[in-house]
Amino acid sequence: MEITLNTSRQCIETASKKEYERLIQQYFKTDSSEKNKILMEQQIEALTYFLQNADFSYLRNRYHAMGFSGTSVLAIPETLKKMHIRLDREILCPVWKKR
Predict the structure, then answer these.
(1) Do residues 23 and 43 touch, judged by C-beta distance below 8 A?
(2) Strands 90-92, 71-75: parallel, antiparallel or unpaired by DSSP?
(3) Each residue's pLDDT tens digit, 45-55
């Protein structure tokens, strides 16, 4: 599963929050098929995990060090801890907060 994040004018954290809010609104507004609702639920779950557990200071520093600005893709495998961000040809792996 993949989630496109518009990071051209905002950081990864803000773009993730906006996509999360958009998905929540879309979930409750539309009469989507059961298949689409399940996909939205999975995306919301993945973004919730990402927003609660990623070290965004690290991500902001790495992102700016790479000099990237544009659209990013949050790639989400079945194991949420293995998600990563694709920036053109580069891959940015989040550091997870310790609990």
Answers:
(1) yes
(2) unpaired
(3) 999 999 999 99
- The answer to whether residues 7 and 71 touch, using CB atoms and an 8 Å cutoff, is yes
| Lookup: tokens for 78 | 């079945």
Rounded CA separation 61/16 (Å): 16
The structure tokens listed for 4 are 């496109």
* pLDDT tens digit sequence for 75-99: 999 999 999 999 878 899 999 987 6
How much is the pLDDT for 33? 84
Helix 56-65 crosses helix 12-29 at what angle (to 10 degrees)? 120
The DSSP element (H or E) to which 2 belongs, if any, is: strand 2-6
User: DSSP letter string over 47-96?
Assistant: HHHHHHHB-HHHHHHHHHHTT--SEEEEE--SSGGG-EEEETTEEEPPPB
